[in-house]
Amino acid sequence: MADIEARIQQIAQVLGQLDDSQVPRNIRASAKESVDKWLLNKDKDMDVRLGMTASKLDEIFNDTNLPIHYGPLCLQIQTALETLMAEVKRS
Fold first, then answer.
1. How many domains, in total, are found in the chain?
2. Which of 2, 25, 38, 56 is 20 to 30 Å from 64 at the Cα level?
3. By three-state DSSP, how is residue 68 classified?
4. 3-state DSSP call for residue 22?
């Protein structure tokens, strides 16, 4: 489980890259909320943390105001979250 928490920290750091002045304020706020309220919230079950973060990230990715060069970053994070979710379900 420590390995999963370390990977979650890495995902949180990558999501932090959306805190950029080129990214609209609502997207930055949504990314910060997904990290603070869901991904790093140890009071929630792991599958809920990962699932809600993935859901928020999907909303961010589908936002028409997301700068195009951040799209691949969102997809990479989404893939990492899905991999973690599969590992959590197996354990």
1. 1
2. 38
3. helix
4. coil
Token code pair at residue 42: 């140890």
* DSSP character at residue 43: T
C-alpha dihedral sign at 12, 55, 79, 81: positive
Please say whether the beta carbons of 82 and 54 come within 8 A: yes
Give the span between the Cα atoms of 78 and 83, in whole angstroms.
9
pLDDT tens column, 55-85: 999 999 999 999 999 999 999 999 999 999 9
CA dihedral sign, ordered 67, 72, 75, 77: negative
Q: What share of the chain is helix, strand, coil (3-state, %, to 5)?
A: 80, 0, 20
Structure tokens at 66: 């997301």
Give the length of the chain: 91
The amino acid at residue 90 is R
Give me the CATH number covering residue 78. 1.20.1440.50
